[in-house]
Amino acid sequence: MRAALRLARNGIGTTHPNPRVGAVVVRDGVLLGRGWHVRPGGPHAEVAALADAGEGARGATLYVTLEPCAGHGRTPPCCHAILAAGIRRVVYGSTDPNPRMAGGGAWLADHGIAVTGGVLAEACDRLNRPFLHGLRRQRPWILAKAAVSLDGKLATETGEARWISSEESRRHLHRIRAEMDAIVVGGGTLCADDPRLTPRGVRRRGANPLRVVIARRLPPFMATAHLCDDAAPSRIYWQSGRQEDAARWRESGVELVAFRRLEEVFDHLYREGRLAVMVEGGGRLFGALFRARLVDELLLYQAPLLLGGERAVGLWMGDGVDRVGQAPRLIDPVRRRLGCDQWIRGLIGYPGSERSSRRNGGPRTEAKGAQPVHGGSFVAGS
């Protein structure tokens, strides 16, 4: 199953809105076939692994990270291919929660194939956390990422933020970006930093993530902005602004989409099949997202710096909570060192939510050499 999980990761960046799935065919300890789901409409992982194994699949065991589908979508049900190939046993990780596709395990058992489910289910679920979350909530999985000082500042009073985090942290961030479907910043961050919002120095099989700016007022047109280059598609969600600026942004290839409420932005991204979204600031956008209970996970790169300043931008700007009991909490956070920085990541639990009932004993430190949560992304940790 671990081999199937490694194969499934090959689909990061290409499978959305479908899940990331890997499969291997094994007999007597010998790996005969392997495959993963590459893109929507393409062969599922099981079918690819069976094709790779050929006649060797007869009487073998199929390991797959997600329960084989029993429904007919863009491709025929995988269960039929498994039966036709003569597979003797199927072992799967996650149970398929999609009502249109679920039930493959039971179907195979009814047709005389031995079936074992739930093997490494937690790791398989983590790999497809955005997909599973989308089925339940009908919106993307939102990861808030920030590089902060020890006193929680995103920048100095003058707005300087380069570089708070270490070079090691920035390299790590690019691995995480490569696993996203969209990368989001606020209008203030666009104007202050002109961020590239692309993964660099890492391998990504699909197109770069969509670059997104959320701004109540449309930022003035910036002819040299990275948003206008061809490194990735770009979009600005806006509420008001000068039509002249709007026309020039559009002429430069940037898509403009009007919105009224913050939730509408992420609803729109989800309808496009963008399941994993990372928000990189700034402080006012983070504050709005936390107040709206939209952040699902937090990733901090905390540098050993003290910036101070009443006017310096903090992680959460705008209205905060009135009482400590109303505060969002990190659930089972993981902590590790990256250069001179501390890397902290955990799920967000909001008061009264199911996740918040999982009390924790504070950050846990990953063992040396442990797989990071992102880059290994959703596969390990958090």
* Percentage of residues in DSSP E strands: 15-25%
Give Rg in angstroms: 22 Å
Order of helices and strands: HEEHEHEHEHHEHEHEEHEHEHEEEE
Helix content: 10-25%
Q: Which regions are unreliable across 5 or more consecutive residues at pLDDT < 50?
A: 360-382
| Mean of pLDDT | 89
Q: What is the tally of helical segments?
A: 11
The biggest beta sheet, please?
10 strands, mixed
Could you walk me through the main structural features you see in this protein, from its secondary elements to its overall organization?
The protein is α/β, with parallel strands linked by helices and 382 residues long. It folds into two domains: 1-131, Cytidine Deaminase, domain 2, CATH 3.40.140; 139-356, Dihydrofolate Reductase, subunit A. 24% of the residues lie in helices and 24% in strands. It has eleven helices and 15 strands. The protein has helices spanning 2-8, 45-53, 78-85, 104-110, 121-127, 129-137, 167-177, 187-193, 243-251, 262-271, 283-291; strands spanning 22-27, 30-36, 61-66, 89-94, 114-116, 141-148, 182-186, 210-217, 234-240, 255-258, 276-279, 297-302, 329-338, 341-349, 364-365. A ten-stranded mixed beta sheet has the order 10-9-8-7-11-6-12-14-13-15. Strands 2-1-3-4-5 form a five-stranded mixed beta sheet. Helix 8 (187-193) links the parallel strand 7 (182-186) and strand 8 (210-217). Helix 3 (78-85) packs parallel to helix 4. The longest helix has 11 residues, at 167-177. The model is unreliable at 360-382 (pLDDT under 50).
